[in-house]
Design goal:
The structure is a single chain. By secondary structure, the chain is α+β, with helices and mostly antiparallel strands. It has one domain (4-159): Peptide deformylase (Peptide Deformylase, Alpha-Beta Complex). The protein has helices at residues 27-48, 129-142; strands at residues 53-55, 65-69, 73-84, 88-93, 101-108, 110-116, 122-128, 157-159. A five-stranded antiparallel beta sheet has the order 1-2-3-6-7, with helices on both faces. A three-stranded antiparallel beta sheet has the order 4-5-8. Strand 6 (110-116) and strand 7 (122-128) form a beta hairpin. The longest helix has 22 residues, at 27-48.
Length: 162
């Protein structure tokens, strides 16, 4: 069972690595990876009260995969963002790899996400607002980018207690 303790923390060099694509031959492994992501996210929610998505590299799984738990679960494999709006918005971002830190970032207001689902079926999803921000956050993890690296300026950090 994966828990909060298994999530890589800020400073772990693996969080800054670019992930490899999931191969179709690895599809049988995806189900167990997603189960681990679900377990860790559930533990974060119980401990800290937040969490809608988690990226595979946060558990040291260096693959282009993330999991969202919204109105239903979403398994996002090998995502691409072929279009994002010019319109941006500011938001205080949080991350399971540093739960006590909020970072003010700018994100695209809307985007188009192309990916494969858990059945290896191609999907296209147009999103906006907070869902756009969430997808950009998780997508960044796959490229070794943390929201701390996207801070608007050097005053865009806030500590929070639980």
């Amino acid at each position: 069972m994966k828990t909060t303790a298994d999530i890589l923390k800020l400073g772990d060099p693996r969080l800054y690595q670019i992930c490899d694509p999931v191969l179709e031959s690895e599809l049988p492994l995806v189900q167990s990876w997603v189960r681990e992501l679900q377990e860790a996210m559930l533990d974060i929610r119980q401990k800290y009260g937040f969490g809608r998505g988690i990226a595979a590299p946060q558990l040291g799984i260096m693959k282009r995969l993330f999991y969202l738990d919204l109105d239903r679960p979403y398994t996002i494999i090998n995502p691409e963002i072929p279009w994002s709006s010019a319109e941006m918005f500011e938001v205080w971002d949080d991350c399971m790899s540093f739960p006590s830190l909020l970072v003010k970032v700018k994100r695209h207001q809307s985007l188009t996400l192309e990916y494969r689902d858990e059945n290896w079926t191609k999907q296209t999803w147009k999103v906006e607002n907070d869902l756009s921000e969430l997808i950009q956050h998780e997508y960044d993890h796959l490229d070794g980018i943390l929201c701390t690296m996207r801070a608007i300026d050097d005053k865009s950090f806030q500590y929070r207690e639980f």
